[in-house]
Amino acid sequence: MLARGEASPSAPWFDIDWSPPEAGLRGRVLLPVPADHYGRELEAGTVGLEREGGWLVVRYAEHCAPLDPVTTGELLAETASAASDATLGFAAQAMTALTGDADVEHAREMAAGRLATDPDAAAALDGLLSTITADPDRLDAILCRQHHRLARWATADAGLVVEKICARGEPLPADWPVDGTTGYEVAAAVTGLQLHPDGRRKLVAAWQEHTGHSATFRRFASRPGARSPSDRCARTSSGSWPRWCTSATATDAGGTSLVPDTYQGTETWDLSLVDPDNRRPVDLAALAAMRRRLGTTSPAALWADPSGRAAGTPSTRWSRRGSRCVGRSPDRSTPAWATSRSAPRRTPVVAFTRAGAVLVAFPRFTVAAGTGAGRVDVPKGRWTNVCRGTLLEGGPQPLATLRGNFPVVVLVRDVPGAN
User: Is pLDDT of 245 > 80?
Assistant: First the structure.
């Protein structure tokens, strides 16, 4: 796919935007591997062309990407002319002219075989590649024709996270130059947190009724040789079983880099029962109109209008003040004390603060009765309830009073002199 680009039979298997707004990336795959800017790497000689078996590749450190067949054919033709090698010249002509994958592969194998048996031709090609590598302008001209583009892997203070689902107890490889994952492990923990303890019995009963098995799902799926269609769930879960949460402990992420996996178009309600990866056309005009309303319409009015309900409404409101403190602080999220007199081990509130500047709280159970029960011990100070537009002093606060009709509570600490 890197060699043929969008024309490759493998291209449809990848979720690649071949027509991005930036003209320099159209029809190309961005390879974010260089540690420094592209031009500096070329000048330093860390990017070059090499021969690897029957492939001509772009090499950077331990990374390599194949040249496209046309470029490969042109370089082979130049080598064949210098070495007076008719066989290599024929393979080069075929690689440049033919478009079918099988034909191109046959021409590549012919060229590889000739280079393996003709040391003079191989030496001539290696010399040509070294000459091009030493000439940043010529090397750049060749790289700009490829179906991939090298670019610095990180810019400014931005971190790099990977979509990696770690099995239970599996750490990220220490040699990966990343800051964390997109947060599947944390998402699984949050899912367990929001499962009502009393729901386990109902789920087990539903599983047994649906499958006809008397064992629980966990016990059934862990048996060797299980062949029920439901076994697919176990085989694809990477060993991460549901955790039935029976305590009210709010747990810090322990430094895990968690990035909200928000797809374009899901800023508003999306009631479809499909994976967000199944992309659909996004109404960008409607999203832009909604964003304009965020700055002029109260959260209460937005929430009353289903078409204007946006996941980012609260965060947009507090970002100008709260994020000034949050963004500059190295502190992690800290659990806030949430209690319930009737069932202290089943506290129906999840609450945390960030850098002491923002407090977020929401019902732990969104469907079960009592979603407004419980209280939050707001730290001392004067706070603004972003969604409701009210002021309050720190101290024990009923969740129902803080929430009103909103699904989440966002409090921002008043900072003297802040706008």
Answer: no
